[in-house]
Write the structure tokens for this entry.
Amino acid sequence: MKQLKGWILEDNLYPFLEILADECQYRFDELDKDALKAGVKEDETFEYSFSGAACSIDLSVFYESGTSVVEIALKVPDALCERIGMLYGVCQGYRLTS
């Protein structure tokens, strides 16, 4: 397992997490979105995890007030690091929709 940390555009939070969940073969659904809506608050860290058929991912989400970015720290299997690194880059430069 490796630690990764980066930021993404706030609007890309759910698409980012949906793609992460897919990598774990975890079904990201409305219950997950509800948990994140309730848990992610300005200037506070929210911890969450996915545990799917392929792997588990632990994440910490931090949204700093007055910004349009979200910092996300991940603990992921080594095999996913390169793909997740690319995902951070896409979510920094483009607005995704789900």
